[in-house]
Amino acid sequence: MKRDRVTLGGKLSAVLVAAGSAVGLGNIWRFPYIAGENGGGAFLLIYIFCIMLLGFPVLLAEFSIGRHTRKNAVGAYRSLSKRWTFLGYNAVLSPFVILGSYFVVAGWTLEYLVVSLTGGITNYVSSAANEQLFNDFAISPVRPIIYTLIFIVITHIIIVMGVRKGIERSAKFLMPLLLVVLAVLAVRSVTLPGGTEGIKFFFKPDFSKVTAATFLNAMGQSFFSLSIGLGCMITYASYFKRDTNLTATTSNVIILDTFVAILASTVIFPAVFSAGIAPEAGASLVFITLPSIFNTMQLPWLWSSAFFLLLGVAALTSTISLHEVITAYVSEEWHMSRKKAARIITGLLIVLASAASLSVGIGRDYTLFGMTLFDLLDSLTADILLPIGGLCTAIFTGWFMDRRILREQITNGQSRHLFVYRTVAILLKYVCPVLLTVIFLYNLGFFSLLTNIFVSLQH
Ligand code: PHE
């Protein structure tokens, strides 16, 4: 263990920093559009089910691993078990893949911020015009790349500033601000003409839309949104204090994260229904619907600027956490200064994100498995890499890791939270592996194959 490792300062810091990672584009951009594609209310219920049965135990397990080992993700798994070091590599590789597409969308938020600040947003009144704005921008080759690059550079600077001055300070200030603006927008959106239809769509479950894919999407979204199944929470927890209450931190992060996703949906869906846009519009949903609400308000440019600034900020606290996983690994394991490690990683990310940005526009005809690079990176992480990471983490902590570590970390060496420890141990050992495996197999068509075999045997 390194004695001189930095730790976070104040009491709230652990929650704010972890929530900074968790709350991001995943909540405000990804959650509403995935929910929209999966029938709204029914998706919300399945999502909450995934958060409680999978998200909570895996997040707590990752916090425990991080704070116990006080190392980067690879170092952490290696010190617990040589055999499981591969999980550490998966935990460092996944942030790369995520950042490839995440930086592109983060760049879009910057462009929208600039269009809002300059008042240009007021020219796009109808939803058709907003659709046009989005398409023109995302498809043009140069502009989105420039914004993406600016975003990458900002992330880089904060990473180089370090854990306390950069990461901790930015999260403390920005998270509360985000909540206030979202709440105001939600009130405005719900009161739009026809807005209540959106509320119905989101809160009244329609199970006829539920398929096996809904479960996969909800599971993937819960991992993505909580930043679990990869090295983020392990790395962050390695900076937590010894007396940080991990159970409370986990609950608070989950409540905050889910609250923001629900709040964002109460902003988006009423606006979608009010403007007559299909809730299944996909990745462009937030970018097309929101400007239409702003234009019904007074001082649209101000609201719009506030919103896209905060969306950018929420994205930033997440890109920082993703970059930090790789930086911590490279600098600690390859014995390099933070600065140098960050520079190499940033260089590689620039190449990947630029390619992903091009794949939305002029490069959209180049596909792999029927998907553009952008879509591929996004679905590869959320639907495959993170859940596999989570599955392995559950199996490792449930079956192979020394039980005392989990117990010591969850209870802080006392008798508090023994009940939580026992429940989490069971969830990790049985419930998570079974549930995750079933969802995977279902989506690979395993069960329909079995049914087919069964039916044909009967004949
Ligand atoms: N949780 C972040 C979001 O919701 C994304 C993220 C995923 C960040 C994985 C870190 C790790 O936007």
Main features:
single chain; 459 residues; mainly alpha; 78% helix; globular; binds phenylalanine
Describe the structure.
With 459 residues, this protein is mainly α. Helices cover 78% and strands 0% of the residues. The protein has helices spanning 13-22, 25-37, 41-69, 73-80, 85-117, 127-139, 142-161, 163-190, 195-203, 212-225, 232-237, 246-275, 285-294, 300-333, 338-360, 373-400, 403-411, 418-443, 446-458. Helix 7 crosses helix 8 and helix 13 packs antiparallel against helix 14. It is globular. The mean pLDDT is 88.
Summarize it.
This protein has 459 residues and is mostly helical.
Helix content: over 70%
Tell me the total number of β-strands.
0
Helix/strand structural class: mainly alpha
Low-confidence stretches: none
SSE string:
HHHHHHHHHHHHHHHHHHH
Q: Compounds present? A: phenylalanine
> Rounded to an integer, what's the Rg over CA atoms?
22 Å
* Ends apart, CA distance between termini: 64 Å
